[in-house]
Design goal:
By secondary structure, the chain is an alpha/beta fold. The protein has helices spanning 2-9, 19-25, 60-64, 76-92, 97-105, 111-141, 147-194, 204-210, 234-239, 241-245; strands spanning 32-34, 41-46, 54-59, 74-75, 213-218, 221-226, 251-257, 262-270. It is built from 10 helices and 8 strands.
């Protein structure tokens, strides 16, 4: 998994292999999903070398052919400005954002409690297995129990073992989800503690500390998705993009770009 992540980070890196420079220069690379077709947006120059030159974010599907996607391109500077404004207003200026995210997730994030419960169930299963062993030994050495009584006791032990194992599996899944959620929230908190001043530009590390993915709804509307309890693969996120667009936001705002006299509306949702 680490090797795959490293390979993805190195995708389309320049010859100098300067990953830090790449992440700062192109923080939105493979990070913004088109709501129309689910492909990622790509950075493109329009009117390169002319006074009207500008950088755009355009859907990869549209680039491959207008028949694939009809989504319009978005000004890179609108996305940058909206992202800086969102990070400052939603996260840096609101240190109570973590309890807000927790309330949306509806999780107590008590990993220790889950660990204790799993340990208790495993101990109970150990005890049950020992009682089953004792029951068998008793029946072999001193067959005082009738077959009917033996079978009833043995089946009861077996049923309880299966019930406990099923509960352990559920708790283990919950443990992983809660641990991942707590880790994400801890990363947000540590980044907030590190950033004492408002940010003025977007870098990849800071952006990914707070936001899992972004969805481009329209050229003037974007959604920032904060990860909740579930881990989504790239494909799952793309497939569920329409659901995420409908999620009630924990924050929203409008960034105005004076250069182009355009607005970018944004929402922040927990998925």
């Amino acid at each position: 998994a680490q090797r795959i992540c490293e390979d993805r980070r190195k995708t389309k890196i320049g010859k100098d292999k300067n990953l830090a420079k790449y992440n700062v220069t192109y923080p939105f690379s493979a990070f913004i999903i088109c709501s129309e077709c689910g492909r990622t947006l790509k950075r493109r120059y329009w009117n390169y070398g002319s006074p009207a030159e500008r950088v755009m974010q355009q859907c990869g599907g549209y680039i491959d052919g207008k028949a694939n996607c009809k989504a319009k391109a978005t000004y890179q500077e609108l996305i940058e400005g909206a992202t800086v404004q969102m990070l400052n207003e939603v996260f840096l200026n609101n240190r109570d954002i973590i309890p807000i995210i927790q309330s949306v997730i509806k999780s107590t994030i008590r990993v220790t409690d889950v660990e204790v419960k799993i340990a208790e169930l495993r101990k109970e299963n150990d005890d049950i297995e020992q009682m089953m062993s004792n029951l068998i030994d008793m029946q072999v050495k001193m067959p005082s129990l009738s077959d009917e009584t033996f079978n009833q006791k043995y089946n009861a032990f077996t049923k309880q073992l299966k019930t406990n194992l099923s509960e352990i599996q559920k708790l283990e899944a919950e443990y992983i989800a809660n641990y991942d959620t707590r880790s994400r929230l801890s990363k947000i908190e540590s980044t907030l503690n590190r950033l004492n001043e408002p940010i003025t530009e977007v870098d990849s590390d800071t952006l990914r500390s707070f936001v899992y993915r972004m969805i481009s709804v329209k050229p003037d509307e974007i959604i920032y998705c904060v990860a909740g309890k579930k881990n989504y693969s790239d494909q799952e996120f793309s497939e569920k993009r329409h659901e995420f667009v409908k999620v009630s936001p924990i924050a929203e705002g409008v960034f105005h770009c004076q250069k182009y006299a355009k607005d970018m509306h944004y929402r922040v949702v927990v998925i």
